[in-house]
Amino acid sequence: GDEDAGELGLAAVPGREAAFRQGLEEAVRYATALGCPRIHLMAGRVPLGAERAAVAGEMETTFIENLRYAADLLAQEDMIGLVEPINNRITDPRYFLNSPHQAAAILEKVGRPNLKLQLDLFHCQIMDGNLSCNLQTYFPLIGHIQIAQVPGRHEPNSPGELNFPYIFELLESLGYTGYVGCEYAPKGDTLEGLSWLRSYWESRGLQHGRTSKAAK
């Protein structure tokens, strides 16, 4: 979308279907060149001046139609489409897709096997908490995991609400074999901030640079 105009994705924005499809085709070209099998299909924001409740139905209809179009296109390239709930309490008050429950309901309506849930535990904790149950409930839908400590959105070992060693072990017990994306803002130097990962490896008896299923 047009970032200068305040857009953050287009998939659920009525009237922007053509721009969404054009952007998707460009993203597929980039993903093909990079060998990236997953593309985040961003829902977008509730239009300025509109009440969320008043436009929710139209935005969901637009989202479902665009997701079906995207899924069919991505299937031709053997790619996965991802949808990510972004919390509207702290990060983005106008973002349309804001909870894993909403995302799961929409994915069920879309009905395409190559569309998955991109579950950012930072957003999930802020909106709903109950991470253990949510991970177990939505695990069949999950195509990617992202992490950051709550509420500061810094390294997993920074002060906060989440016990990441427990969460990583839970992911392993569930059989998660994908990547865990570190979508946090380092408090200082990036490499120094990765000391949490070295400590986690050591706690699991792993050598530095060797990865477990959940800590790739």
TrEMBL record:
Q: Does the keyword Nucleotidyltransferase apply?
A: no
Q: Which residues form the Xylose isomerase-like TIM barrel domain?
A: 9-199
Which terms does the record give in the GO molecular function aspect? hydroxypyruvate isomerase activity
Check the record and name the InterPro entries matching this protein. Sugar_Epim/Isomerase (IPR050417), Xyl_isomerase-like_sf (IPR036237), Xyl_isomerase-like_TIM-brl (IPR013022)
Query: Coding gene?
Result: Hyi
Q: This chain belongs to which protein, by name? A: HYI isomerase
Pfam families xrefs? AP_endonuc_2
One GO term under biological process is: glyoxylate metabolic process
Which residues does UniProt call coiled coil?
Answer: none
Organism for this UniProt entry: Turnix velox (Little buttonquail)
Sorted UniProt keywords: Isomerase
Q: Per the record's keyword annotation, is Ribonucleoprotein included, yes or no?
A: no
Signal sequence residues: none
